[in-house]
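Incident log, entry 3
Record: DNA polymerase IV (427 residues)
Problem: checksum mismatch between cached and fresh output.
Input:
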Amino acid sequence: MSKKDFGAREVGVVADDSTATILHVDMDAFFVEVELLDRPDLRGKPVVVGGSGGRGVVSSASYEARAFGVRSAMPIGRALQLCPHLEMLPGHMEKYRAASAVVMGIFREITPLVEPLSIDEAFLDVSGATRLFGSPTEIARLIRARVLERTGLPCSVGVAATKFVAKLASGKSKPNGLLVIPEQDTVAFLHQLPVGAMWGVGDATEKRLASRGIHTVFELAHTPVPVLERIVGKAGAGRLSELAWGRDSRAVQTERAEKSVSHEQTFFDEVTSHAELEREVRAQADAVGTRLRKAGLVAGTIALKLRWSSFETITRQTRLSRPTDTGLTIFKAASGLLDEAHREGQAVRLIGVRADQLAVGGEGMALTLWDEEQTDEWDTAERTIDQATTRFGRDALRPASLLGRRERRDRGTGLSERPNRPSQGFD
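Fresh output:
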């Protein structure tokens, strides 16, 4: 397989792909493509989903916009400087969630071994599906065809022997492509890549490696681990060396132990109102509480995350007097952190609420006789809400303070295209 093959739409397809049973499926410019289903007149033009009027950030950019240097998380003002004729569309998270549900359902039609990474990408282990659906390459083609047929959306698929290489392969096949890397071709594929393609190698690490003459994965692989330890630290050196030789033993995980539960919101337009941020914190606290109760967990620590207009990100946390799974208690703790960290008029791009130090419900729940945070009545009320939303939908009951929040979102806020997975906590 030569280097020139890697630029095609369907490349690296070989007679024996039996070793490449891990798929990484990534939707292409997901938010933009969903919006273009209702705006076909904009197809082929540089389009972004994000804030309007020169404010806010780019949440998703079409490949035509990316050709001008426009990228996700870029301020809209900068994007307009790069591409003055940029088309800007507001985001609609409900549409993206609905499309994502269909896509993830298609994956599970093929295999139960599906590990969603975010709203628009997932790993699949198809080792047990080949007798029914054919080779891994045929399965990848089938998935792409079903996704396009049922949603009208394109996706790119990387097929490899490991999760790490499958993800790299899907990125190399974009947009709307398929790339297969059998196990025997893994090292050759990796060693032609720049070192920045490696997981865990950000801009700062890439510069440190470059200062030592390490520019490619080949050079990284042939650097002794003790030397790497002096550059990137002991913890990262061994991992990078293993990945540079294609060694990645991680399996596709359909379930994982919750280390934290979090929800966060990236705003298309910056928010300066403390009251608006407090309403968002209330909604996120309720969502975190709901997920804790569904998982049978309680949290001992609550954290708040804020990202300012400068992209500086801060995190504040507080320990609870007793573990909880109640949204009201989580809100009180998070809103207190908000009061400490934010002042009226400060522009916020992102806000999030996280629950840490999780334990099985009932563990560590003993109460003092006069516990000021005794909230049994509200606990009962929230569980009643859980039952109602399960039967009638999540908007059947909600706090009066959140009325109108959906309408505000539809007018210009929403999650970024690469949000943190709620169960995985903050960056």
